[in-house]
Write a structure and sequence with these properties.
Structural class: alpha+beta
Largest sheet: 6 strands, mixed
Helix content: 25-40%
Radius of gyration: 16 Å
Shape: globular
Number of helices: 5
Strand content: 25-35%
Length: 199
């Protein structure tokens, strides 16, 4: 988790609905979960914090065997999109014995997007986990293409690693201070189109 450039994790919530006060969600860019020690630390930390949902990016998980092992180690439900051995991969972990029933989930085939649908207090939600590309052009294209996954009759929550910042002075430590906001325009369009706000 030590990187010379650090970006704040991001969440976007419905503007018109108070966030679920009794559901906890966090997001972590793991920079790979293949190392047993690191994976154990990540899982133990999340269990200790007792998060209902954990959004993971850059898991580097790329096989069914990996997923079987991680699911067993986590102990709760997990929803994955494969990455490669050295890049990408996203997942959503749900804590063990969580009383929220996930009705269905979707994943892409690039290790960039996974979402789940669930109902809580008679309200339908879609929780989306994204890992945007590092490359500026690919990031803009990715953000421009995900709106089809955000349409529906539910409250939308988006989290993850967007690989850009809205305000480099506020949201970024290290790196070139004049760079880092490419993707903001595309995200602003999503924010307006789906009436969500940056938490």
């Amino acid at each position: 988790w030590n990187s010379p450039v650090r970006l704040r994790p991001k969440f976007f919530f419905p503007k018109t609905h108070p966030i679920m006060d009794n559901i906890s969600i966090t997001t972590i860019n793991t920079h790979g979960l293949r190392d047993d020690g690191k994976r154990n630390r990540v899982f133990q930390y999340c269990k200790y914090k007792n998060y209902d949902f954990v959004l993971l990016q850059e898991t580097h998980i790329n096989s069914v065997n990996d997923i079987k092992r991680l699911d067993e180690e986590w102990g709760g439900k997990a929803f994955w999109s494969f990455g490669s051995y050295h890049s990408c991969g996203v997942g959503i972990l749900q804590k063990r014995n969580c009383n929220i029933k996930v009705s269905n989930f979707y994943h892409d085939f690039d290790g960039r997007l996974v979402y789940i649908n669930f109902v809580h207090n008679k309200c339908a939600y879609r929780l989306v986990n994204v890992y945007c590309p590092n490359d500026d052009k690919e990031r803009k294209l990715f953000l421009s293409s995900i709106s089809r996954h955000l349409i529906g009759n539910f409250k939308l929550i988006i989290g993850g690693d967007f690989n850009f910042v809205e305000n480099p002075i506020l949201d970024k430590i290290g790196g070139n201070p004049s760079r880092g906001d490419i993707g903001k325009r595309e995200m602003d369009i999503l924010i307006r189109s789906f009436d969500i706000s940056d938490a």
